[in-house]
Amino acid sequence: MMTTSAPSHAGEREPSGRPPVLDMRGITKRFGATHALRDVDLTLFPGEVLGLVGENGAGKSTIMKILSGAYSKDDGDIRIRGEAVDLRGPAHAQELGIAIIYQELSLFPDLTAVENIFVRHEKCRGGRPWILSPLDRGAMRDRTLDLLREDLGVVIDVDVPVSRLSLAEKQLIEIARALHSRADIIIMDEPTEALEAEERERLFATVRRLRDAGKSVIYVSHQLDQVVGLCDRVTVLRDGSHVSTAPRDQVDVASIISLMIGGSLEEQYPTLPPPAEETVLQVEDLTLARDFEKVSFAVRRGEILGIAGLNGSGKNALVRSVYGIRPPDEGTVTVAGRRVTIRSPKDATACGLAFLPAERKTEGVFTGHSIRWNLTIAGLRRTSRLRLRREQERQVTDRYASELGVKAASGEQEITLLSGGNQQKVLLARWLAVDPEVFLLEEPTRGIDVSAKADVYRHIADYARRGKSFVVVSSESPELLGICHRVLVMYEGRVAAVLDAGEATQELIAHYSVQRAEEAADE
């Protein structure tokens, strides 16, 4: 459906006749002998949301860093509002009205929203420098409220440290800070990766509000359905080159994937093997005060059970409680026919459970360590003979890295040098090496590209076929529908419904996410 088309060159205008606010032509960037970008064109119009997509390594991050002044280009031309510019650094880019909101937010956690927005731009009484006059805190607070309420249409507590706010609220403060700096070109890098469904909708409304106000947004995301639904045009990069730019009425997810990978992607979701009759995990009347109450479910051997629900529904708290991170107040857990007492993750691991957290960078990966160290940390006991232990670790690393298709120079490579998809494969391999009965997975494909997602889905299905069981918590309904035998939907800390794969739809999941089955039946 999506046709390969490069933007035309000098003098390009959008159908309304307005010239572009940003025009990048023939942008090339080399790192040694490697071309990160090769002759890339990118055009952005006033009041437009442009989707920028591509697999990891396609060049998205490089072009963002060039535009934000973090990298210099080797060749090519950049025009902003028709004027040729040579970006001399991030401060220069900001002076030209360019702001970037990275996936890793740059707010000061101990400062309030007001203080974060005005840091280095403080207002003082009488308009004098802050050294000579007291801060005009009232004016700064009023301006912050105006930015949030009038410009973005949201209400946020601006008087508490931002560390106490949700991720979605922090992102909105980043956007408000960009608006305060008078940015009219705003780059958003994977803005919804850690957001729940209702938070995403609020962010989308904010992006549309920015567009309607004449701001221009470059929206970088692996979530292709969001890109198609939100963006006016979509630009695809592959292997450092521009492949296509097309309006959204000429794109769909399948055609974008095809352009991203240079061919057709095999079915993203694998055929699921039927589970056995044996119950391998039984949870009965599990309760954790203020999070969930009397939750019961069972998982059969070889079954993949999905858990859905809105933010605050208790879905993440539930699996973390089963794993012993926050032990339940009441209820029982039975693993492979044996009732167990789990008061810590160590207990859970000993009982045959494994857990992959949603926050891979902060809770999963041990930064500063090798792939080998990360993969084997949970499975190999220390021995008195260092040489023997190292040899065992190398063998285990080679086996599982090969089995899961981890792309790396060697097992000694530092794990943070890998793509998100390869890091996730290492974390999955870490637990495969332990040989647990049940995997508890939080957002297993968050922040990884479409090919890596397909790989993760295939590995989950393969190990389910071998008798492993999975509980998958995800905020992506298509993921749950594609990879799970059943979907349990939570609402306000209770089970709202359990849907078989044959009956589950995105609409049903959304429906039960806001009310329990008995409430729906009363309508």
From TrEMBL:
Residues 22-264, 275-517 form the ABC transporter domain. SUPFAM superfamilies: P-loop containing nucleoside triphosphate hydrolases. InterPro entries: AAA+_ATPase (IPR003593), ABC_carbohydrate_import_ATPase (IPR050107), ABC_transporter-like_ATP-bd (IPR003439), ABC_transporter-like_CS (IPR017871), P-loop_NTPase (IPR027417). Residues 1-24 are annotated as: Disordered. SMART domains: AAA. Signal peptide: none annotated. Keywords: ATP-binding, Nucleotide-binding, Repeat, Transport. It comes from the Bacteria. The keyword Iron does not apply. It holds the Pfam family ABC_tran. One of its GO terms (molecular function) is ATP hydrolysis activity. This is Ribose ABC transporter ATP-binding protein.
